Amino acid sequence: EAAAAGGGRCGPGAALRWCISGALCAAFLGLGMSIAVLGPTFPNLAANVGKNVSDIYYIFVGRSLGYLGGSVIGGGLFDCMNASLLLALSMFATTAGLYGIPWCKDSLLLTVLMSVIGASMGVLDTGGNVLVLNTWRAESGPHLQALHFSFAAGAFVAPILAKMALGGSESKELPVAEKTNQSVLKSVPTASAASATPALQDHLEADFLWSYVVIGTYLLFVSIFFFILCSKGSSARDKSKNSVQKGSFAKYHSALIALLFVFFLFYVGAEVTYGSYIFTYAIVFAEMKENEAAALNSVFWGTFAACRGAAIFGAAFLYPGTMILLSLLASAVSSFALAFFAHFRALLWVGSAVYGASMATVFPSGISWIEQYTVVQGKSASLFVVGAALGEMCIPAVVGYLQGRFHHIPVIMYAAFACSAMTVVLFPVMYKLAISPRESDLKEVRDSETQKALLSNSRLTEDEEDEEDEEDVREWNEADFEVIEMNDKLKNPLTDASHKISGDSPAQVSLQPHLDDDVLGNSPVVAGGSPGRQNGNIDWEKSD
């Protein structure tokens, strides 16, 4: 754990981190299968509870509400309990719900089971993203891309699994008449269970039972692996990392989280709306055949999944912000072409492929990007998932309502362009808020400026002291010069006086040596001196 916390690539800590990433990818593969399996088995569920397909639409509402509630509750629980344990319990609850669905004969009980499954999947979606961030920190980009690629792969595998369960046995066991009745049941949305024979109904139950049991068993094994990780105490390290990171929130943390909530709402809403209605658009507006429309739908989701897989490697050398910017530009250009030039058949195919590719990396890259500027805790991640879930619920419903009101207008294309425009506008605003300096940074800047000011003041004081010393030196030098000048002035009158004495009468001059001799002869100092010295003194006085 210490090696993992230190970011080492070798040793048991690094191996534990890779085990966590692998387990999360396996869990998200099951999450994608659990969500996508409902579509192809929806008529079978209606027949199993004895209802029309149009009468059990509320199971989608129940699952969506459970997903929202699980995201919110899971975000709070993730901040205060063991992450691996929470994820293991959520997958165990999903397994229980999937096991119970095939034997559920009541529509209300089916809605409750769907709500439980939705709540557990919301916990898994929220906790998985946060656990990857806490495990890999700055290196989380490729792992987040791998996580969401696993989800896309699961959503791709689930319809195939359901088709194998339903199609494989029906060709072997059903008589021709029953196969005809089943094809009618699957093709007509309002078909009721009463239109099918009891033998056909029992066989349908056995068919779609296997798809739910297989997915549930798979998630059961993954949950056991998370229980093992829980016993290893892998989440203790994650909590310690969260505690260390407190205080590194962005200056506008709440505003960033709120804007990213709205950003994911429009992004996921556009993704689900286009994937849900492109088949209908191709038939109604592009006048395609059903197999062509299905192929167009597959192109969208195929490029979506392929680019999520490629993004695993792209995230290793591209910044999350760069990936988001490229995706938003591609999304804006392709949605603009689809909104105004989709009547060209070739442009419809190319635009759908580019639009699917541009939507692939936005969600995981958005989470990686925001983590660079602020702390992403469980509550923050739950808001991201809630925003995505609300977009998945609301925007397709609004588009469907408007398309029903305005039959001759391709509302789906205009909605895709409007959502792309909103994301293009929101991202620069979020970036501006993200790069705003934090209070701690401003305090550090102010402290450094104060230190610089103090240093400059000390330097100024030293310079002033040096200048004062120089002035004192100059004053002393001037005083010395004045003393020298005064001495010169005193010497000059003495020199003049001596010249005057030398220019007096010869009698005075002749008397002077005698006086000097008397004085010098009476001097005790000179008396002990040499005669040469005395003569030198006499000569000096005579010269004066």
From TrEMBL:
Keywords: Membrane, Transmembrane, Transmembrane helix. GO terms for cellular component: membrane. It is found in: Membrane. The keyword Transmembrane helix applies. It comes from the Eukaryota. The chain crosses the membrane at residues 15-36, 56-78, 85-102, 108-134, 146-166, 209-231, 252-279, 324-342, 348-370, 382-402, 408-431. Residues 462-474 have a biased composition (Acidic residues). Belongs to the major facilitator superfamily. The keyword Transmembrane helix applies. Gene3D superfamilies: MFS general substrate transporter like domains. It is a multi-pass membrane protein. Its main location: membrane. It comes from Serilophus lunatus. This is MFS4B protein. Residues 446-474, 494-544 are annotated as: Disordered.
